Sequence to fold (244 residues):
Amino acid sequence: MPKRFVVATSRFSDLPRFPAGLELAEALTEAARRLHETPTPDSTLETAVRLAVDLVPGADHAGISVVERDDRRSTLAWTDEVVRAAEEDGGAGSGTGRRPYWHRLWTAPVAEVEDSENGEGDGALAGLGLRSVLSLRLRADRRRLTVLTAYARKPRAFDETALRIGRLFTAHVGIALDSATVREQLTEAMRTRDLIGQATGILMERMDIDAAGAFDSLVRASQRENVKLRDLARRIVDPHGTTP
Fold:
């Protein structure tokens, strides 16, 4: 998939006039298709980081992380281990160190480091051979950020075109991630309903009570043992834990 595009003009969301030639339009359409084909949020994230390297001009690596207000971080998807090292404090693994440019994302959709060796990044990035950073906000609320970050081995690797393509791409990722999350929740709800129905049936037969009494018994046991209803139902249906 090409990373440099023939230019024309278009508009998207709040972005300024943007080069969007046929090659770019086709690339983004294909990326959106591949994102929406993913069956789970995890697979959406994994696909997104691979596509980010293909689409964003200058990108050599990419990762998606969650950043908490207290600076705790966890990396959700990555293209290679250098990304995990970069996002987990240069290999320290604590996930609690600061990335100053990420803090800008609480108030802005994009944060950049043009050259980590010029004091605007940090020594850990430069030590990993990562000179340029382009971080884009995927989701944000009062407690946490979800961030897509592209990394490059060259300084000043991300120009205005990379920034705008990155913002277009993250919009697609966000929509696909929301869709995958809803699908997963609906699937889990159906599985939970079936599981609770099976457990209720077992209790009806075992205790010689009707459906309402069996369900009430299940709810009371869940509250008494402080166990989620679905987990308790799973224990009744599969006491030996032979099914996932």
Residues 160-207 form the longest helix (48 residues). Strands lie at 61-68, 73-78, 110-113, 132-140, 144-152.
